[in-house]
Amino acid sequence: MRNFTSVEQSIDDAAHRYLDRARGGRLREGLTEFVVFGLKQAWACVFGAALLAVIIAARLWYPDNAGLARNDFLTIAAIVVQVLMISFRLETLRELRVILLFHVVGTVMELFKTDVGSWAYEAEGVLRIGAVPLFSGFMYAAVGSYMVRVFRLFDLRFDRYPRRWITALVAGAIYVNFFSHHYIFDARWVLLAAVVLVYGRCVMHFRVFRRRFRMPILVSFLLVSLFIWFAENIGTWSRAWLYPNQLDGWQAVSIDKLLAWFLLMIISVVLVAWVYNPEPLGAAQAADATQIRPGHQDVGVPTPSE
To answer: Cα separation of 223 and 220, whole Å?
Structure first.
């Protein structure tokens, strides 16, 4: 199993102590798996949720005449959240490396996209590069934080994961297309077909509590992309940034952006794969068989993924 941080290990041990005493029938165990799944997802989203909460709070209550510009306040708040994540051992320094990569990749794209008018930020504050406030990089870092945390919280394993150099080529092509489609042919549909071809046979296995489940990895990409699209609607409602069609009044982000987020997921997965090497299910099954806690039966073996 992926190593928890010390805080997460303490929470996991406490949860097991409670739930081991509360075992019941199939309905209760199924409900337990469902609740734990939701709690783990919420825990994986803690950075993004904290950042989104700050953005909403700034939209509702930050004074317009404050001496500190709202964008600068968001940047400082995002830095504080990141420092707290590391200080309280909610993220590891190893994971911070890939999160910083998300910063760089995201900020470079932000600089280009704002320059060509794809979206815009309020022209205020000094903590910015050109037209891009520095807090924007933390929004990409929030995606990176979720990805690395969900990878170990659910002990992700994969069947038929494609070769990493192939995934890197596809991710590179997707990233280039985010820039090049403004000048030449937009290859997003070709790239979508390439993603389906490369990842179509891959199945993701994840442990919730006592049991493992399976899901086609393309389905997981779509679900995460949909979640990010919902968060993007909240972000634009909060006027953290705006698309051209929202300048005269807020309206929902176009569903077309869902494809962009789906393709961006591939870049995210490739970056995370350089921190956590995607491993097959077999090794995890062997580990499950040796980590059965006292009083447990069939913990993870056999599982719904078998």
So the answer is: 5
